[in-house]
């Protein structure tokens, strides 16, 4: 019915289509493991279930909430509606301070406690990540 050239072209385009489809699938699958979702403390309180995935919690460091000891630093992140306690072991950025914006990346222990693996506060005092700014404005 079809000639040899037509069959060869159909085969060639089918192989290219499958290769593109497979490449797209592999790229999306690899990115899936590296996606870190951003949520606010208020969002944590209304989560239907706690997952074991890495997340980022952002907001402001509550005034008079920073406590340090030999092993870790404890502080509270607030969005002025809800709060969550955070523990972090490691060195903190120089601009980390009370009443300043912060994003903590790590894992939830429960709805009130978060263990941070990384603190993201490497910005000047006037800058606030757009996600944090949006979350804070929507809560006021």
Tell me about this structure.
The chain has 140 residues and is of the alpha+beta class. It folds into two domains: 1-35; 37-139, OB fold (Dihydrolipoamide Acetyltransferase, E2P) (Beta Barrel). 33% of the residues lie in helices and 30% in strands. The protein has helices spanning 4-34, 41-45, 130-139; strands at residues 37-39, 55-61, 67-68, 73-78, 83-88, 101-110, 113-120. The protein has a five-stranded mixed beta barrel with strand order 2-4-5-7-6. The relative contact order is 0.16.
Topology, please?
Layout (H helix, E strand, L loop, with lengths): L3 H31 L2 E3 L1 H5 L9 E7 L5 E2 L4 E6 L4 E6 L12 E10 L2 E8 L9 H10 L1
Parallel strand pairs: 1-2, 5-7
Antiparallel strand pairs: 2-4, 2-6, 3-4, 4-5, 6-7
So what's the oligomer here?
single chain
Radius of gyration: 23 Å
Q: What is the CATH C level class of the largest domain, in words?
A: Mainly Beta
The CA-CA distance between the termini, in Å, is 70 Å
The gross shape turns out to be elongated
**Could you tell me the strand content as a percent range?**
25-35%
Helical amount among residues, as a percent range? 25-40%
Query: Overall mean pLDDT score?
Result: 86
